[in-house]
C-alpha cells in the first residue's frame, strides 16, 4: 500500500499564485480566522458576574490556584468567530460527499424538527420513567421496524455507534458460548471486512484469523470451511461485511453462514453498508446472527450526531436471550423498559450493561422520522437509487480510472485503484488533494487495504444526475491532467483551501494539544539610507 509518509509544511492557502494581497489576510468572503485566544483578552470578562457570597470550598487540594485565563469576547465577536469557522467545514449541505463506506447522505430537516419536539429534545436520562412513556414507546417502535427490516428476533438499542455495536454483538456471542459450556478462541475476519472488526474481536480476547479474498474481491466459502477445519472446535464466529468494503455483495453468504453454523459458531455481519440493501434483502434470511446498524448512516441522522451516534444491534433467535440491559419488552399494557436483572424473566440472560443509559434519543427520533416519511417503498427506492448512483459513477469513469475487480456491477459504492496513475508522478493522495481545489471532499483513500492505492466513492441516493455529471466530469478532467504530465496541479494541492497540505505524519506523531502564547515580536523600523 502506497502511503504518504513525508507530508508537507502547513501554510496559509493562496487563492491563486500571485493573487492580490490583502492587509487582513482575508480574501473577500474567505476570511482568515484566528483562535479565540488570539482575538480576546484573558484579563477581562465578556459578562458581568457578581462576587459570590462567602463559602467554604470543597475541592481541597484540587482547587485551581492559577487564573482560568479564558478569552473574553463581545457577543458579536463570539458569533462572528463561530459563523466564520462553520464556513470552513465541508458538509453534505455544501456539496457531494463521496466518502466510501461512510454513507454521507442528506439529512431531511423534517427529522431535525421532530428531534426537537418537547418530550424528545428536552428529556433527561435521570428523570422518572413514569414521565417519559412516549420516549419508551418511540424506542420500542423503532426497534420493531429495525427487526422487520432485518428479519431478526431481538434488538439491543443502547450501543452508541458502529464499533460499540460490534462489541455488543460479539459480547452476546461470547455469552452464548459460555452459556453452552464452550470457550472457543478464534474469530474469522475476511480481508474485506471493516477495520474495526478485528479490533473488536481482539478486545474481547479472541485470536483473529484472516480469510483471504478471491480475485473478484469476495469471500470464498471453501476458504471459510478450510479455516474452520484448521481450527476445528475452536472457532467462535465470523465477522463479515456485506456488502463488503470493495462495494460488492457477498453472493455466497448463505453457504458461508451454513458452514459457520455447522461448526457451532455464530455469524456477525457488519451493518455499516446496510444502506445498499434496505428493503431488498434481510440479513436474518441470509443466516446472520448479529448485526449492528449505523442509524447515522442508513437512516440519515447527521453523521455521529454531533456527539454519540447510535448503533443498535439486531439479534437472531439464538442470541436474543443475551441482549444487554437495558432493553424493552412488550408488556400487556405496552412497552416495558427493563433496566436491571431483577426485571428479567426466565428466558432472558443479558450479558450485562454496555452503557449507563438506553441510548441517544435524538438519533432514535430522527431515524424513526426518516422511516415513517419514506415508508417501505421509499426505503427500498433509497437503496436502489444508492446502487444506481454508484454504478452511474462507475460507468462514467471506468474508461479512464482503473477498476481492481473489472467492469462489474457494484453495490452502493464503487472502488478504483491507482493503476491509472502509474508513471504520472501523481499519487492517490495527490489526486485527492487536487479534488479539494475543485470544491469536493476527497473520497475514502487507501481503504480497503486489499487494493493498492484504493479510492472508494459512495455518492449515496442523495445526489441528482446533474450533481453526479459534474462530479464525474471533474474527476475526468483531473485524470486527463495527470496523464498529460501536469504534476504541479497535484503536487502542491490544495492551493485554494484555507490551509495548504498538512504534514500529516508529524501531526499524528507529535500533536500540539495546548495553545501557547507566542513570544512578542518587536517590529524594527527600516534603517534610514
Q: Can you summarize this structure?
A:
GO terms for molecular function: glycine binding; glycine dehydrogenase (decarboxylating) activity; pyridoxal phosphate binding. With 529 residues, this protein is α/β, with parallel strands linked by helices.
Describe this protein's structure.
- Keywords: Oxidoreductase, Pyridoxal phosphate.
- Helix 8 (253-262) links the parallel strand 4 and strand 5 (266-270).
- The protein has 529 residues and is α/β, with parallel strands linked by helices.
- The protein contains 14 helices and twelve strands.
- It has two domains: 111-369, Aspartate Aminotransferase, domain 2 (3-Layer(aba) Sandwich); 376-509, Alpha-Beta Complex (Aspartate Aminotransferase, domain 1).
- Helix 4 (133-150) packs parallel to helix 10 (361-397) and helix 5 packs across helix 6 (196-203).
- The strands form three sheets. Strands 1-7-6-5-4-2-3 form a seven-stranded mixed sheet, with helices on both faces.
- The relative contact order is 0.15.
- What is the rounded distance between the termini? 59 Å
Task: Please state how the strands of the largest beta sheet are arranged side by side.
Answer: 1-7-6-5-4-2-3
Give the CA-based shape: globular
> Which stretches are poorly predicted, pLDDT < 50 over at least 5 residues?
1-17
Number of helices: 14
- Estimate the mean pLDDT confidence: 90
Helix content: 25-40%
Structural class: alpha/beta
Architecture (CATH level 2) name of the largest domain: 3-Layer(aba) Sandwich
Structural domain tally: 2
